[in-house]
Design a protein that fits this description.
Layout: H1 7-15, H2 24-48, H3 58-66, H4 72-75, H5 83-89, H6 100-117, H7 122-137, E1 144-148, H8 155-165, E2 183-187, H9 196-213, E3 218-222, H10 229-234, H11 246-249, H12 259-277, E4 289-294, H13 307-322, E5 330-334, H14 340-352, H15 354-358, E6 363-368, H16 370-379, H17 381-384, H18 390-411, H19 413-416, E7 421-428, E8 433-439, H20 455-464, E9 472-475
Parallel strand pairs: 1-4, 1-5, 2-3, 3-4, 6-7
Antiparallel strand pairs: 7-8, 8-9
Helix pairs in contact: 6-7, 6-8, 9-12, 14-16, 14-18
InterPro entries: AAA+_ATPase (IPR003593), P-loop_NTPase (IPR027417), Torsin (IPR010448)
Protein name: ATPase associated with various cellular activities (AAA) family protein
Domain AAA+ ATPase: 141-328
Length: 477
């Protein structure tokens, strides 16, 4: 078109173009190139890490990489370390303590996780979010979050969800992404048979190693009541009584150490040689978020008590056991005993969380009918109403529903690679079983066998079986 214009008109046409103008084709080419570069960057980054499985949405991850803003709140507490230096020192940690944008994103993720996945304990979620919001805004203020309640009501699960919201990657030691890699779990029952000095040395070694990697990490002491009270007292700096353990600030003497004690002291010395020689003190323990869980309801002490009586009992027992050591910086949250309504919430969440647990590339959505929920709760009442409560019920439900999905995929191997299932579980009153139903799509032929048949039955069905004619496939165990 331009070639048909007179030469003078062509010059006027070109001169009217704005500076920086580029043809549409060039812009499209640059856009495609940018997308390709982004994909290559993600792939290269994924191959360079051990387990590139992120806790956050894509937007949250991008913010963590490219948000270089500073925090006015954190700036008042910073000890001469710039935001860039903080990132270089601790590349594994989300900079929520120094970056307002990242902190807001973490709080949004934390709120979404706790509201969606802490079942049957609405009295805990919002007050806990208030405490954690202040902690993230003022990270050097010590805080100990005490989660009290019976076994299986969601205390440990809550701490894991908080760590997931504050972590860049999922915990490497768990198949399901329900915790972040900045979580250190210390089992209260893991030091039986050890002296207080030996147990203290092991715990301090774990905490120091964790703090060196995640100075704003999460530490969970699971079942604090199982620990010797003398050991709890020996860990006083962790609960806000001091900024550091003595081992963090001094070089252990190796002149008189011997045997196992010598080896442990040498490992602690190696850990801190770099920070001490540079003149920078190690990160203070007050920056950590400390969770402790307790179970004062053992042996049926909470049975028949009102919620007010349960709260009073927990506060009295906690103060009586630990005196003034913990209550000064402790925020206590009481989890109420397990009920049928909570059991129904656990069953529903076990089903609705399947896309996240098994992979969204396999399952697009998962639902269950109200009748099936009530049936499973009543069927397993004797088990979930015992000691383990929600843990036992969730495991039983997952065993039952996941087994049906595994059998379905075994008998539909071709569809597994390109078909995202929309599964629904419902109660079959004829057999009194909870059955898996999958939509009969155009990609599924009418001659496919039912999902729960064995391999022999499936082959027999393939030769002479017929469809049930209702447009959906069923399976059961």
């Amino acid at each position: 078109m331009a070639s048909l214009l007179p030469q003078q008109a062509l010059r006027r046409h070109v001169s009217r173009r704005k500076p920086g103008w580029a043809p549409v084709s060039a812009v499209a080419g640059m856009t495609v190139a940018l997308i390709v570069c982004s994909v290559v960057f993600v792939l290269v980054l994924g191959s360079a890490t051990e387990r590139l499985k992120y806790c956050h949405t894509t937007s949250g991850y991008i913010i963590s990489l490219f948000s270089w803003g500073t925090s006015a709140l954190a700036g008042k507490q910073r000890t001469g370390v710039s935001n860039r230096e903080q990132r270089q020192l601790y590349p594994l940690e989300l900079p929520f303590a120094t970056d307002d944008a990242v902190r807001k994103q973490c709080m949004r993720d934390m709120q979404d996780l706790l509201l969606a996945r802490v079942r049957g304990q609405p009295q805990v979620v919002m007050p806990l979010l208030d405490v954690l919001r202040r902690k993230l805004a003022y990270p050097r203020e010590p805080v100990v979050v005490h989660l009290a309640g019976d076994n299986g009501v969601g205390k440990t699960h809550t701490a894991r969800l908080v760590s997931q919201a504050l972590s860049l990657r999922c915990a490497p030691d768990r198949d399901v992404c329900d915790a972040g890699d900045n979580l250190l779990t210390i089992a209260g029952t893991g030091f039986d048979g050890l002296s207080v000095a030996e147990a203290r040395q092991r715990i301090i070694g774990q905490i120091i190693t964790h703090t060196d990697r995640y100075p704003h990490g999460v530490v969970l002491i699971d079942d604090l009541t199982a620990m010797d009270p003398s050991l709890v007292s020996a860990l006083a700096p962790l609960f806000g009584r001091a900024a550091h353990f003595p081992e963090q600030l001094t070089h252990p003497s190796t002149a008189t150490a011997a045997g196992a004690r010598h080896a442990a002291a040498k490992s602690l010395q190696t850990m801190h040689d770099s920070s001490l020689s540079s003149g920078q003190p190690p990160p203070p323990l007050s920056q950590l978020i400390i969770f402790v869980t307790t179970d004062f309801g053992r042996q049926g002490r909470t049975v028949g008590k009102s919620r007010t009586e349960i709260e009073a009992m927990i506060q009295h027992d906690f103060a009586d056991l630990y005196g003034t050591l913990l209550p000064a910086y402790t925020r206590t949250f009481v989890y109420y005993p397990f009920t049928s309504a909570m059991a129904e919430d656990v069953v529903r969440s076990a089903v609705t969380d399947l896309p996240c647990a098994l992979g969204e590339r396999l399952i697009a959505s998962s639902t269950i009918s109200d009748e099936a929920v009530s049936f499973l709760v009543q069927q397993h009442r004797q088990l979930w109403s015992g000691k383990e409560n929600g843990h036992a019920l969730r495991r039983l439900v997952e065993d039952e529903i996941v087994s049906q999905l595994v059998v379905y995929w075994e008998t539909h191997a071709q569809q597994k690679h390109f078909e995202r299932l929309r599964v629904h579980f419902e109660l079959d009153e004829a057999s009194m079983r909870v059955l898996l139903r999958t939509p009969h799509t155009s990609r599924t032929t009418a001659s496919q066998p039912p999902a729960a048949l064995s391999s022999v039955e499936a082959r027999a069905y393939g030769h002479g079986g017929a469809d049930d004619g209702d447009g959906e496939e069923r399976s059961d165990l």
